[in-house]
Amino acid sequence: MRELRVYGMNILDNLLSIEMPIIAAVNGPVNVATEIPLMSDIVICSDNAWFQDGPHYRRGVVPGDGQHIIWDMLLGPVRARYLLLTGQAINADKALEWGVVNEVLPQEQLVERAYQLARHIALRSPMANHYSRRLFTQNLKRAVLNELSHGIGLEV
């Protein structure tokens, strides 16, 4: 149990400690660990992508490994609770409409678009990229610090 708790905490701590902007290119369904791509600075996805917290609640497990943090931040508490309690899947178009992702592209264009965005960001000042990332992740870091330990504790 302790090992699961430490591992779960380290995943998000390490992700949020990356000092440069992160682009997530979601190329298909994400029904496990949706918090990982969704905590990126830019999230793009293919038109066949969908997002769902599949394994938690319907299998009798509390969605406390970060799902409760990121979905609440992205969708607000009412939609987040609905999604987590019902296991609702959100397709790419709905994810774009609800502000979960930034762009939806045909699958064959996804990786090239991610590289295009990365090249655009890489042309900026390294210091601006570094400090922008720190600024953008501050609320997530605070939420992880305040809520993840409790959530993982209830999950395990």
Describe the structure in brief.
The chain contains 7 helices and 5 strands; from the N terminus they run αβαββααβαβαα. It is mainly alpha-helical and 156 residues long. The longest helix is centred in the last third of the chain and has 30 residues.
Please explain how this structure is put together.
The chain has 156 residues and is mostly helical. Helix content is 58%, strand content 10%. It has helices at 2-17, 35-38, 67-75, 77-86, 92-97, 107-122, 126-155; strands at residues 23-26, 42-46, 50-51, 90-91, 103-105. The strands form 2 sheets. Strands 1-2-5 form a 3-stranded parallel beta sheet. Strands 3-4 form a two-stranded antiparallel ribbon. Strand 1 (23-26), helix 2 and strand 2 form a beta-alpha-beta unit. The mean pLDDT is 91.
What is the topology?
Layout: H1 2-17, E1 23-26, H2 35-38, E2 42-46, E3 50-51, H3 67-75, H4 77-86, E4 90-91, H5 92-97, E5 103-105, H6 107-122, H7 126-155
Parallel strand pairs: 1-2, 2-5
Antiparallel strand pairs: 3-4
Helix pairs in contact: 1-7, 3-4
Helix content: 55-70%
Quote the average pLDDT: 91
> How many strands appear in the DSSP assignment?
5
Cα-based radius of gyration, to the nearest Å:
16 Å
Ends apart, CA distance between termini = 6 Å
Name the beta content range. 5-15%
The neighbouring-strand order within the major sheet is 1-2-5
Overall form? globular
**What structural category characterises the helix and strand content?**
mainly alpha
Largest sheet features: 3 strands, parallel
* SSE pattern: HEHEEHHEHEHH
Low-pLDDT stretches are none
What count of helical segments does DSSP give?
7
